[in-house]
Every structure is written in structure tokens, then in C-alpha cells.
Fold:
Amino acid sequence: MALLFHTRPKVRIDVSNRKSIEKAEETLNAREFSKLISSRHYSESVYETIVISGLRLIVGNNCYVIPYKHDIVNKKTERANAPDVMVFHKSLKTWFIVELELLKPSVSHAIEQLDTFTNYELRSILNHVDYIKKKINEIDPYFNRYEELENLISTKKAEVVLMAEHIPVDWRQKLKDSMINCFSCTFQIYSDDNKIEFLRINDEGAFSNIYHKKLVKVDLLNSCLLFRNGVSYFTEYENGSEIEIILESVIYNWKLEKKQKHVRLFYDGIGFPVANMVKDVMLIIRESRLELKYVY
Structure:
């Protein structure tokens, strides 16, 4: 999902309307909005405000986006790090810890932060649950599902998102080598000569509504994925259907085999896209697409 909006309040883009988005993209692609502004032109606090405003406009219909600067403790190292943002889906079935990087720190700094957020000590977050409630109520004064919110935080592990204006290839490789499971999200600010700005956000699947997540077995011998008790997730597909599944930003075609109680997905191509020696992968079933993520 690549969405774009004006950072000035007088101009609004309806992110639910494809024509509105296309018109905004055309405006951005016009010559007068060809200047890309580096995050170094802003203070960190101003830049965070711009990005949070953008996230609220893009995913605000489905999510609560709140700033968050309290320390989270790493249960393995006992090191404490503070993220920049938390996002709670309004269904209270999914939540996100978001780290905003301006590429000024080194990749080792980002890895340290993300390692903490993927291995958090739960109590260090629950200690600040009243702050989370307060920030959500600032967005929605009628929100009162406090027990459900605490249950979500207590029982559902947060998804971790790295946001940066650019994520270099070496960063992605080092994150993979460090076995850190996180989503990526990029953003850029463009401007014309009058300093009127556009912010473009590409969430790379990070904040798309997650409906189901299922651990599936990898069968390298038969070049397929085994999805036990998964027939109910594929009711809209006929046996033998071709299905597109995204793995590491690449789309691969698979053929569906439905049995009475389980499903197998056979790779329809040369070789096999899943890395050798991997026994399990996470299948993420979204509203509009399927994705695979490695589980470390």
C-alpha cells in the first residue's frame, strides 16, 4: 500500500477513494513537487509529528495511532529502550510497536531497539497502560473497552514495525541475520518551491488489517506448504486454484490442493522460494493478499 497525503490541513485526500489517491500521485509526480526533503531538515520532534499525522490519516479509520516515549525493557538483556509510536487496531485483535528511524543512527542502534521491542518484558508496558488509555481517549472520547485493551496487550504479542525514510539493503540483511521479526515501512516528504509539502507512506504490509496468522509446515521434498486444519481459510478458492503469495516483497504463484481437513500449497515455478532448512513459516491472511514471513 503506497498512500500519499498533503501535510497542510487545508488540503485533504480521501485515502479510501482510489481516484483521490491517483490524483494526489499525479500531483506529486508533477515537476513542481519533485524536490525530496531529507529528514535532516527537520527536528526529530517535528518529523515525528508529521509522520504520526500521516499514519492517522492513512490508517486512522481502523487504528488508534498514539505517540509513546516510555521505556520498554528487554526481557533477555534487561536493557531499556523507548519506541516512538504504538498502533492499536480498533478490533483490539492486533497492535504494533513502531520505531521511527531517521537514518542518523547506525544499523546497530536500530537492531538494539528492535531486539528490545520483539523481546519485551510485558510488565514494562502494562505499567503504562493508563497512559495508553488516555491517549486513545484523546482520539476517541467514547472509547471504554479498557478490559479488552489490557487483555490484548497481555495475551497478544505486538507486531514490530521499523519506519524510515529509506531502508538500505545492508540494513535489511543485518536485520535478517539478527533474526529480528519486524515489518518495514518507508516514507518520504516532497516539496514545491513554495514549501508546500506532501508526505508519501509505503507501509509494505505493516498496517494492513491482519485477519489470521497461521504457522505452516514447509515440505521441501514436495515443494509445498502444509496448512493443517486450514480448509476454512480457503473457502473462497476452488481446489486447484492459483494463488499469489508474497515472500520478502516478491510475489510467487502457488497451486491450492484442498483435502477434507488440511490444505497444501504447491509452488508453481522453478526451484523453491522458501530458504533451505526452514521447517515452518508464518502465513499471514489479509483482506486482499496472502504473505509468508520467516519465524526466527
